[in-house]
Design brief:
Blueprint: E1 6-10, E2 20-25, H1 34-43, H2 45-52, E3 62-66, E4 74-79, H3 90-107, E5 112-115, H4 127-144, E6 150-155, H5 160-169
Bound molecules: ligand AR6.
Ligand AR6 binds at residues 12-14, 24-26, 32-36, 38, 80, 116-123, 154, 156-158.
């Protein structure tokens, strides 16, 4: 895989001018706090109207909407697992979030896709392990597929930037 296909930045995912940003949503897809709240706030009320039509989303799965007032054209909503100590399939469910989001990006021929750290806030997934899963699943997918052309990992107000940096440099 070409290293230029993966980028790492610090900041607010809602400000990015990309084809799609990924939302760390919940099963209802009707909004919440954290990055979900920030995305709904920035996208405006039409996002909630579209989300209501989707009838929720299972953990580990993903669904796409328009980006409305965001610079991003689309939002891919995925539902990460709540961390219960690692004995409830959390690892494979988080891997499935990345796989499902990347599969939608492929299907829609999305060129640039940005991920926050799914499950690493309110859902309590350990950040180092979550970053490892994010990077492994993304690299594996990009090796086999042309779309998305580029994936951007977005870290926000914490120390996971260095964790991602080390993983991406390997
Ligand atoms: N840009 C980029 N990353 C962000 C931003 C932002 N604007 N805001 C927060 N983060 P969380 P979860 C990071 O809690 O753990 C919601 O209520 C944050 O630092 O948003 O998957 C949903 O509705 C953290 O690393 O998502 C669900 O109920 C990461 O985003 C629940 O929280 C994820 O933190 C989902 O919990």
């Amino acid at each position: 895989m070409n290293k230029k296909r993966v980028e790492l930045i610090k900041g607010d995912i809602t400000s990015l001018d990309v084809d799609a940003i990924v939302n760390a949503a919940n099963n209802s897809l009707l909004g919440g706090g954290g990055v979900d709240g920030a995305i709904h706030e920035a996208a405006g009320p039409d996002l909630l109207i579209e989300c209501k039509r989707l009838n929720g989303c299972e953990t580990g799965h993903a669904k796409i909407t328009d980006g409305f007032r965001l610079k991003a054209k689309h939002v891919i909503h995925t539902v990460g697992p709540v961390w219960y100590g690692g004995y409830h399939d959390e690892h494979s469910l988080l891997a499935s979030c990345y796989q499902s989001s990347l599969a939608i990006a492929k299907e829609k021929k999305i060129k640039t896709l940005a991920f926050p750290g799914i499950s690493t806030g309110a859902y309590g997934f350990p950040k180092d392990l979550a970053a490892l899963i994010a990077v492994n699943e993304t690299k594996r997918f990009l090796t086999k597929n042309v779309y998305p052309e580029k994936v951007i990992f977005v870290t926000y107000g914490d120390d996971s930037y260095e964790t991602y940096r080390k993983l991406l440099d390997q």
